[in-house]
Amino acid sequence: MTTASARIRQGLRAYLRRFGGRKTIGADLKAGLVLGVESVPDGLAAGLLAGVSPLNGLYAYMFGALGGALATGSVFMTVQATGAMAVVISDVSAATPGGLTPGALTTLGLMTGLVMLGLASLGLVLWCASSRRLCWSASSTPSP
User: Where in the cell does this protein reside (predicted)?
Assistant: First the structure.
């Protein structure tokens, strides 16, 4: 029988294996540098498009990228600000008397993140139900 801490360590090792290793660190650093240089003007532009301070757009880009890095491990995906979300924030800012305060903007961002996590959780539940597997059990054996 395995203990809970052994299962957690095993799961953590499996999670970290998705990110490559010492062989890919050079290529990962180069890709990160290129994406970092590209993301500064993109984040500033998203802030301007949203009608808020460009610095707020840069912060949103930074924290969005950090959240995406922690939540995903695909080499085929990058997390970037979208013009569609900036337009939505612009509409919210225009409808709010006095514009969005930094606190309201933070609340809007956190609420959006919670909705996205809820939708992702719903997708996982539907996937588990459609494939008739026990996604949450320790053995992960398919049900008959």
Answer: Membrane
Between CA 130 and CA 111 the distance in angstroms is 28
Find, among 115, 113, 10, 133, the residue nearest to 66 by Cα. 113
Task: Report residue 142: phi and psi, to 5°.
Answer: -65, 145
Please give the radius of gyration of the chain, using alpha carbons only, rounded to the nearest integer: 20
Share of the chain above pLDDT 70, in %: 81
Phi/psi region, residue 99 (left: phi>0; alpha: psi -120 to 50; beta: rest), is: left
Calpha distance 121→115 (Å, rounded) = 10
Q: How many CB atoms lie within 10 A of CB 8?
A: 10
Residue 2 confidence (pLDDT): 65
Q: In what helix (H) or strand (E) does residue 120 lie, and over which residues does it extend?
A: helix 102-131
Q: CA–CA separation, 59 vs 48, rounded Å? A: 13
In the chain, % helix, strand, coil (3-state, to 5) comes to 70, 0, 25
